[in-house]
Amino acid sequence: MMKKIVVVGSSNTDLIIKVPEIPRPGETLLGGEFMTFPGGKGANQAVAAARAGGDVVFIASVGDDTYGTEAIKGYKLDNINTEDIKICKGVPSGIAMITISERGENAITVASGANANLYPADLEEAEEPFEEADYMLIQLETPLETVQKAVELCSELNTRVILNPAPAAELSIDILKHVSIITPNETEAESLTGIMVRDELTAAGAADSLHKRGVETVIITMGASGAYLSDPGSGIRKIIPGFKVKALDTTAAGDVFNGQLAVSLAEGESLEKAVVLAHAAAALSVQKLGAQSSIPRREETFSYLEEKLNQ
Ligand code: RIB
Q1: Closest Cα to atom 7, ligand 1: which residue?
Q2: Nearest alpha carbon to residue 92 among 46, 61, 138
Q3: Is the pLDDT confidence value at 71 over 90?
């Protein structure tokens, strides 16, 4: 049976321009192509989990505009349950302006719009999906009070929580103590702990600081270096290398990692195997343009991994 994942988070439309280099402050750059893709960290993670084989409920808030309507149509095509997506009258849907350099790096600015209207009370109305879920996946593009409410609900219902603390923010112990697995990148790990993550030793320091505040398992994604996995319960503390690929666009790579991770763990894979599968899905995604347009399906991820392991 498919595992149930509830995702709470943002839904955006990404407006993308490709440029030779990310512009500096005050600089005007003539860019290349302009493209529009569905995005938002919450939505990307929901789509990633659905394509990885999860039975996904997405709890979000969109505006009553074309962007919101089209976004919901897209989630339905991925068989995501959209019943708990709130449609806010007279409020614009979330928009992300993204510039992508020739090296595949990006700079993202988000106008939250309706994402800022996802309130704690909206989660109370949607308690059933939390109760039934094997994992709840959440990020930080919706109000912190809502994140707080979501993790508390999960704690009461014994639903395991994966927190992807993006974009970077400081978080109180009241949130962290309810988190089963946290998945910051290096910058986010530094915002949470004050420790600049550069290598295995500094990653271990940041992970310890998060364990002390109640987080069971820490996975720090470190770009090309892989991911540092720290799970004192099983005694695993090491870097799990990723796959070397030429990145065309790294937008949503972290989201793909998290969506695949949640499904693999819900299916009973070990933490190490789940991280390897998450790396494989993310490696596939960075080779294509856009957020949801780049998210692989389960079969692609599994055959990519098999191919790599046989090399
Ligand atoms: O993580 C990538 C996402 O961040 C983009 O899709 C954009 O919408 C922003 O939310």
Answers
A1: 40
A2: 61
A3: yes
